[in-house]
Structure formats: structure tokens, C-alpha cells
Amino acid sequence: QVQLVESGGGLVQPGGSLRLSCAASRSIASLYAMGWYRQVPGKKRELVAAVTSGSNINIADSVKGRFTISTDNAKDTVNLQMNNLKPEDTAVYYCNAKTRTAINYWGQGTQVTVSS
Predict the structure, then answer these.
(1) In sequence order, what E strands does the chain have?
(2) What is the pLDDT of residues 17-53, one digit of tens each?
């Protein structure tokens, strides 16, 4: 069974940076896309950024210009470079992987807290 392992979360001051990383425990067959979602208590999980195998990128308007997503298809890894972080970025961030057969995998979530 595939497991997505996340790292890089933590506490950072406004304006600071963090880099999230997610790696699959096993190679994912027919991998189509990998990305990041985030969720705060009482709110639905929302897309932050995702990239397909063809390097097509979807990114939330709220993080454009500040966050950058990258993947390493050879290692089934996705990274999220987060710059100029704001308090409203505080959330649990979840790694996601999708296959061409519509299978979804989710990480356990990593906490990002932006506070002075």
C-alpha cells in the first residue's frame, strides 16, 4: 500500500519561508498528478497547488507569486516552496497523489503555523 510521507512543516514568522516535501513510500503506478491541499478547523480542504505528469500546474490565487510547486517524477516526490508566508496560510497541509485510474492517496498532514 502506498504511503505519502510529508515533512517540512513548523512554526514560522510572517514573511518567513518553509519548504514542504512529500515522497511516496513506493513507486505509484500510472501517476497522474501530485500536489498540496490545506485545511483549517471548520473549513473545507482546499487546493493549494498541483502539477500533472505533463507539468501542467494549478495554483490557488491566494498563494500565486509566493508559493512554488515542483515534482520529481523519477522519485514520486512533490515539494512546495512557501515564501512570504502570511498568518492566513496557517493550516494543516496535506500531500495528494492521483493516478490515471482515479485513485487518490493522501498524506497524514503537516502543520504550518505562521505567527509572530
Answers:
(1) 4-7, 10-12, 18-24, 31-39, 46-52, 57-59, 67-72, 77-82, 91-99, 104-106, 110-114
(2) 999 999 999 999 999 999 999 999 999 999 999 999 8
